[in-house]
Amino acid sequence: xxxxxxxxRRGLMSPGSRHSRSRVVLFGAVxxxxxxxxxxxxxxxxxxxxxxxxxxxxxxxxxLSMLMITFSALLLFSNIINHLSNIYLSRDLPLLHSLPVSxxxxxxxxxxxxxxDSSWMVIVFSLPVFxxxxxxxxxxxxxxxxxxxxxxxxxLIASSLSALAVLLGAAILPAGKIRTLFVVLGVGLAIMLIxxxxxxxxxxxxxxxxxxxxxxxxxxxxxLSIPYLPTTWITDTVHHALNARWKTSLFNLALxxxxxxTLIFAIEMIATRLYTRGxxxxxxxxxxxxRPLKFFGRSWEDVLFFLSGQARAFAVKDIxxxxxxxxQWPQLFLICALILIYLYNFSVLPLDKSPIKTxxxxxxxxxxxVGLAAFVLSAIAARFVFPxxxxxxxxxxxxxxxxxxxxxxxxxxxxxxFIPLLILTELLIAASNLLxxxxxxxxxxxxxTILFLVPAITGLAVGLGARFPDFKSENPALAATxxxxxxxxxxxxxxxxxxxxxxxGPVYRIFMARLHGQGFSAMQIMWFLLSFIFAICLCLCSxxxxxxxxxxxxxxx
Amino acid sequence: xxxxxxxxKDFGTxxxxxxxxxxxxxxxxxxxxxxxxxxxxTTIRLMGGIIEPTSGNIRIGxxxxxxxxxxxxxxxxxxxxxxxxxxKLTGSEFMKFIGDLYGxxxxxxxxxxxxxxxxxxxxxxxxxxxxxxxxGMKQRLILAAALLHEPGVLVIDExxxxxxxxxxxxxxxxxxxxxxxNVTIFLSTHTLGIAEDLxxxxxxxxRGKLLAQGTMxxxxxxAKTGAAxxxxxxxxxxxxx
Lengths: 557, 241
Hints:
With 557 residues, chain A is mainly alpha-helical. Chain A is 78% helix and 1% strand.
């Protein structure tokens, strides 16, 4: 564990590193905002629940149970991913396996690291939830201590169960196929998300008329409790502590803790038998999963005929690398699932039941939808576009030594992501606008806005990705979680908000004037033009400035 | 073909290369030796255009590397000390990628790729992804790729690391053939025997400064070691500095 702890300490405490200190400050600020935001939301929701007579407590407890299930799902998934990386695929493992260290010590040290990686965020962001429950229910110190113990137990149980699954999976699956597990997991998670969404049917919660009665409503909420699940014990621990039932609370906590210890003992025992075998299997020769795709003797590369030789070479290399890396696929599936959910939400919006006129609401939603789609685009860009330069890894020397300018390198990255993102976002906007049934004006406006926002956000991601590269990381996607990733997200959100604010006034005026058949004054036309021109300028600056900045930085390193 | 005039590279906390000047002629094999951390890799990276010097000029084939990097790099074949590659590409895909970057024509690319992959005993592995290659195979692939565009200058950092004895002999033969065809070769190495055996001239660098350079006789003269071997010359020069 020591190298890991020393590395972490140096990363935080390095006295000469202004970069790392500003990183800590920035992350601290963003984290605190999220923390306070989470607290405010939960406090508000729980206060509202308390105002609902008879059912307030039931709703609060149901929310607690749903949160615990969500935390468990998050912990299970992130633990599995981290266990596979830390315990089987990490680059330092061959060195560690050559040392005179017992299998169980090696396994447990990696498991502990993985447990910390997967759990810290859930623990940190569960605290405002517990705090808001404690304040609303006026709980004492005992509740807070027990809640901390409960979330700690939840982390231990989820991590042990994941380790168990990974140990068995790595031993059963044929050697070298461990990566495939990532794909299965990704698809599984995507399907799970869709199923959960369909089962919960959140649109029904705002429409109590559709329930035959309150009883049916409550029964439907209570359907999820299963007494033998650790999440139920953990929920019960917190639930009883809130209501000052110490004995029952401590009994459930003890049950959870003993379960965690038993599972840890079990994984240590199983690891002594299975870990070395699984690790050896993971070391087998890598193979291509697919053979080259040919269509009537032509290769898919021919589609990129319009690019120059060097740009095409970069693009072909990036596409191949992307699709041959199975760790990328689950996230693609996940995006597809999220897009389906996104569109599904628009299809079930109960606009006709709203007290506001449908035509206003449709168009307000359409306008807000531009922002929402752009935020989704930012998230996708943060995950896939921002790490694109870092993905070159240690092979970046090839780019630097080749007779190709960094401009070509960066712009080939830009176009590689810009085209699919533009198609995806325009389709998303068009489909959601069709589902909303908006006016042609709103349809054209939102599609035009996205036409400017997509290159701006893509350029911002590529440029800042080049300005904050991480060529040393084993997982380039992690670059998005660093300082550069946060700067990108903040600037991207700032850009989207600024563009929407600039458009909001003119759009409202134009929309109302069309509705009432009115014209515009010269001043108004000037205002519209200036607003739209300023929005376009902002987008162009977001596209070109970061690209120039990134190119300059790469040249200097 | 290679001219470095007063080149300095300051990394802020360390001056890796300090006012280094050297000239390597056409068809010459120049060996660069020095202790660990002497500045060999930094010099090679400067020469390959991977990093820019803090001050000083580098010209490759008469082209200023700072003013016209693309044209200069077009005539360089660069091989780094560690074989980091795009692991998800196959050997032949990597060759094609490099060929496209260097603007090698289709016909020449097909002919040279097969010839080089055969020469470096990688032809049977050409359709396997590089991730599956051993360290030595990756090193051979980089060497093959560096020769694909028929460079005028080869800049190589530790060319023999990870190669088996047969491959070492093959690479040495290739270097001699290339030098006979007027290709300039600049290589850094810790294997003094290879430097002594292969190079026309040798430069000794320590703490970023060139201590001495020349033929074996000139180095012996500079170190006042009579007719000693390179090992003794090297140790004497480094010790005295």
